[in-house]
Design a protein that fits this description.
Distance between the termini: 31 Å
Helix content: 40-55%
Order of helices and strands: HEEEHEEHHEEEHEEH
Number of helices: 6
Shape: globular
Number of strands: 10
Largest sheet: 5 strands, antiparallel
Strand content: 25-35%
């Protein structure tokens, strides 16, 4: 009877692990494909296109367990173009872009950059014109897809090793090594996530430091929005505590050499959530239609910021990434050897 139950456990475990591994492989392969296409797109041919749809969609949801409310914003863009007399459409601005975000300024920035009826050029794959994008290159958000895919695959291996340890079904792995292997996989996730966060934070630190010497231009606020996010946390005694954080978002325009550019960054590495007073002060500092001074990268004016220089917020992401990375390395350097010697 025990053998039957062990077999049943393994069947369900393999199904679950297979599903996690399949999702991880799909996410990872999609991210890698987007990176390859994005890098190759700089040499792809171009053709004229028109924006036939440009809108922002907001999807509201509420967690059924804790009642936490959230809003996901998406830009709904559609570009129409022709190649060799055959019509095509694409929704892609750049390869590897995320499908949704909690930051309303991101899709609003795209809507403003690509208003309905506007003319532009798109790059398209020479062997498959249906694969196209409004801008060549890779979106930084593709890194999160690649990391998520690897984490899912590592998680699948962890589940498989854990089930093996519980059922004692021989996988050719010594029982004394099960816990060290699990810890190694667990530490690898922290190293991977921490490395990604640290890399993204380092880019913010570099741009924040350099932005103090970037050229400036006069700009104007085109979009201003304050969002409130509700959250509920249950403590150890079972009591529920409610909290609301507020974030202020902006999109602004400015001209460089007669060309209009748009950006939405207030400060490099800024932390969105905060108190209502802080959000109100930011909204008052950057009112809709208000004039602002913009600092922009001389070689890429779309990389711009309203508040140049380093600040406390700029260190949050790299600091968290470093903490994750050091924890994972410490487990590998000290935790696993200690367990192995103890065994």
């Amino acid at each position: 009877m025990a053998h039957v139950w062990q077999t049943i456990v393994w069947i369900f475990a393999l199904l679950g692990v297979g599903l996690i591994a399949f999702l991880g492989f799909r996410v990872l392969s999609s991210g890698v494909k987007d990176v390859w296409r994005g890098l190759a797109s700089s040499s792809w041919p171009r053709t004229a296109a028109e924006v036939i749809r440009s809108e922002v969609e907001a999807e509201r949801s509420r967690d059924p367990e804790d009642g936490t409310a959230s809003i996901i914003y998406r830009a709904r863009l559609l570009f129409a173009y022709e190649v060799d007399g055959r019509p095509y459409t694409t929704e892609r601005v750049r390869f590897g872009e995320s499908l949704g975000t909690g930051d309303p300024s991101e899709p609003e920035l795209k809507r403003i950059r690509y208003p309905e009826g506007a003319s532009l050029t798109v790059v398209y794959h020479p062997d498959d014109p249906a694969v196209a994008a409004a801008r060549p290159g890779v979106s930084p958000s593709v890194a999160f897809a690649i990391v998520a895919g690897i984490v899912l695959l590592v998680g699948a291996v962890m589940c498989l090793v854990a089930v093996r340890a519980m059922t004692r079904a021989g996988l050719g792995l010594d029982d004394d090594l099960v816990v060290p292997v699990l810890m190694g996989l667990f530490a690898s996730i922290f190293i991977l996530v921490g490395g990604a966060m640290l890399a993204a934070g380092a880019v913010n630190l570099r741009d924040a430091r350099a932005s103090r010497t970037w050229p400036s231009a006069q700009g104007r606020i085109l979009f201003q929005k304050t969002d409130a996010t509700e959250s509920r946390v249950r403590d150890a005694e079972g009591q529920t505590h409610e909290a609301t954080s507020f974030s202020s978002f902006v999109v602004y325009s400015f001209a460089v050499d007669g060309v209009t550019h748009y950006a939405n960054k207030r400060k490099f590495g800024e932390v969105g959530g905060g108190g209502e007073e802080r959000a109100a002060n930011l909204a008052a500092r950057y009112p809709l239609g208000g004039a602002v001074e913009v600092r922009y990268h001389p070689a890429d004016p779309d990389r711009a910021v309203l508040e140049p220089g380093l600040g406390g917020e700029t260190w949050v992401l790299p600091g968290a990434g470093l903490a994750f990375l050091l924890f994972g390395l410490a487990v590998w350097a000290f935790g696993i050897p200690a367990l192995t010697r103890g065994g």
